[in-house]
Design brief:
The complex is a heterodimer of chains A (185) and B (137).
Chain A lengths: L1 H5 L4 H17 L8 H9 L17 H18 L12 H9 L11 H4 L1 H4 L2 H21 L3 H10 L3 H21 L5
Chain B lengths: L3 H16 L5 H8 L5 H22 L20 H17 L3 H9 L5 H18 L6
Helix pairs in contact in B: 1-5, 2-4, 5-6
Classes of the chains: A mainly alpha (185), B mainly alpha (137).
């Protein structure tokens, strides 16, 4: 059983499991939306004193912070107890394309050129990660949700705004993939 | 128990995101280059099954575990905020390979560079709060 869980999960199992998470949170009287936590953390850090957007009772979001904490633990469990020693099965076309723009595939989840020690202690590496993160945080709040809040919670509730947001996710993602990444490495 | 169930749900979420490899920068690149069905199948399955669940919850007026009716909030009708905000989000998603959930799951895997991404995301969230009234919504 453990051996089966250690293998990479196929898309249908994973997709069904994500739907289960969404339904579970609804059953708990909550909803599936991760990026709200970023606003909550800003509030806890004291942002509400200066900016009204952050002036709310963060304790109403305590459940979501606990969920986020659990997500980190899920990562710990997956990288230890459920660790799979096989390299990531990335599409050959992607490996070739990335190589052409100077990014090598090392079989791990994330490239060492972005997340390895050399990268995260270099000015260039820090700037890419910091700026990328800034865009994610700003964009998620501006759009009123991220992949979980729009692509899952919103689309399953037939929300047209969420479809527009997901279209935006792809416009931005394609632009970064073809117009920005090729010039970074 | 009140708190633990959310931590347990989070743990399950972290494991799903890890084992589906949706937290992988490489998988996100593969998706944006349309070179694998994996991420589309994953999101598609979640949306189809989730939609069915939402439909049934509404149709049979299913309650949550405390007995209160499960309610759904409609998103505000607008175009600019979703398309502009979504595009900005997408730029960051492809650069870092991580949306807000996976940023934290990756920390659990020991990718401590994600702390820089999370710090950036918090700064981005703060900037939004700061200038929100000047932006088209």
């Amino acid at each position: 059983m453990l051996e089966l869980l250690r293998q990479p999960w196929p898309w249908y199992t994973s997709g069904a499991a994500i739907a289960f998470i969404m339904i579970l949170l609804l059953y708990f009287g909550k909803y599936f939306g991760v990026s709200s936590n970023l606003r909550t953390i800003c509030t806890i850090a004291g942002a509400g004193k200066k900016v009204s957007f952050f002036d709310f009772d963060w304790k109403t979001q305590k459940w979501n912070l606990l969920f986020l904490f659990g997500a980190i633990l899920g990562g710990v469990i997956s990288s230890t107890l459920l660790k799979n020693n096989q390299p990531l099965q990335l599409s050959g076309a992607t490996i070739t394309d990335l190589k052409a723009i100077g990014i090598s595939f090392d079989g791990n989840l994330n490239p060492s050129q972005l997340f390895g020690p050399d990268a995260i202690f270099s000015i260039k590496g820090i700037l890419i990660l910091l700026f990328g993160g800034l865009l994610v945080g700003f964009g998620a709040r501006y759009a009123g949700g991220c992949t979980s809040g729009h692509a899952i919670s919103g689309l399953t509730n037939m929300q047209l705004p969420s479809l527009i947001a997901v279209a935006g996710f792809f416009i931005g993602g394609l632009a970064a993939t073809y117009l920005i990444l090729p010039y970074l490495f | 128990m009140k708190s633990i169930k959310f931590i347990l749900a989070g743990i399950l979420f972290g494991i799903i995101m890890s084992k589906s490899e949706a937290i992988s920068w490489y998988r996100i690149q593969e998706m944006f280059r349309f070179q694998s069905f994996h991420m589309y199948g994953l999101m598609g399955t979640a949306v189809v099954l989730g939609s069915l669940a939402v439909f049934l919850i509404k149709k049979f007026k299913i309650n949550d575990y405390t007995g209160k009716p499960i309610t759904f909030q409609d998103k505000d009708k607008s175009f600019p905020r979703y398309i502009i905000g979504g595009t900005i989000f997408g730029l960051g998603w492809a650069l870092t390979g991580a949306c807000p959930g996976p940023m934290f799951v990756n920390i659990g895997h020991g990718y401590f560079g994600m702390f820089i991404v999370i710090f950036g995301a918090l700064v981005g969230t703060y900037i939004y709060g700061l200038i929100k009234n000047k932006l088209p919504h």
